[in-house]
Amino acid sequence: MKKKPSRRGSHSTHKHLPPPKRRPSQKKSSPGTVPYVWAIAALEGTQDIVRDELTGRFGKSCSFIDHPRNDEIHLRFTDDPRELLSLSTAQTLLLRRDFDVIRPRTLLSPEHTAAVVRLFSDAQNIKGVSPPASFRFDAAGSGSPTMRRIAEQVEKQLGIPFDPETGDGVLVFRPGKPGWEVMCRVGNRPLATRDWRRVNYLGSLNAAIASCMVELTRPARGDRYLNLMCGSGTLLIERLRRLQAQLAVGIDISDDALTASKHNLEAAGFTDRVRLISGDAQDICFPDASFDAIATDLPWGERLGSRETNLTLYRGTFKETARVCRAGGKWVVLTQDIDSIRTVLAEAQDLWNVIDERTILQRGYQPFCATLQRK
């Protein structure tokens, strides 16, 4: 009787190879002398991978702090804060300051308003880019009279307009333990918004999720890596940003997808490191056991494909990836069509072992991610 694969949830203790060594730091202090805390937004279901990246790269420079939120990691960091900007598995980096106040209206005092403004300025200075064109609040009751008065004071001192809808500078206000936490996003965009993305192809994968999927393949320098149904090339680029591969191949049946991949790979500087091939996921043009690691963002019927055709597609893809993956190789697959993927996983137990599975929460979506090992 075959052993049923165990399920592992959002807090998996699955170990990954440590990312490459970080570059030598130029500074070993947090901004100024203010007792700041760092907050890293990590999608629920990926926190363990983000923690692994932090500890693997920065070691004792990180001191984690307990916090009730499941989608954030809070820590003190004793090295150059600019190093945190290179995190690949995290969504957003924020700088946090705690205020010993009971009500947010107390933040209207000149001393506290000046501290909020300094927090904002220090956060932007870390990124070293032009100041935001405007700012906004992320807070419960952000339209209340008190929050509007705080916005007026901050606007006056910063000299930057308050835009409650589209401001690219973000200040977060919320109750803490004790008092209130105020956080500012570092930079005008989340970390997961990559500079290399030139084409947003339909259904493009979030880059931080792609980076987490890459980690789940346990990347090694000599890997032969396949991104099946490569779309805009996110999984290819994140793999090559992580570590050089012996071979990197992207396959998609759509010419538009391959064009999107080409433009994004060019922007990332990886054009000459990838083979892009027009092909069907159920008929891969490579010999048996050609790849060590495979990553696939399967269509699941929301933007691409349909629920009616998924089961047939998944069955054919599982069979073909088993053919081209070497024994012991990894395949990380993502989809929100959980019924279809569970059906096919049960049918493919003679081909694949499930070594990790998790649900990722992302803006109302809950895609399922499984890491498989070829038997």
What's the short version?
Helices cover 28% and strands 24% of the residues.
Mean pLDDT: 90
Sheet with the most strands, sense and barrel status: 7 strands, mixed
Continuous helix count: 8
Q: What count of domains describes the coordinates? A: 2
Strand fraction: 15-25%
Overview of the structural elements:
By secondary structure, the protein is of the alpha/beta class. Strand 13 (352-359) and strand 14 (368-374) form a beta hairpin. The protein has a seven-stranded mixed β-sheet with strand order 2-3-1-4-7-6-5, with helices on one face. The chain has a seven-stranded mixed β-sheet with strand order 10-9-8-11-12-14-13. The protein is built from eight helices and 14 strands. Helices cover 28% and strands 24% of the residues.
Properties at a glance:
375 residues; alpha/beta; VC0802-like; Rossmann fold; 2 domains; 7-stranded mixed beta sheet; elongated; disordered N terminus
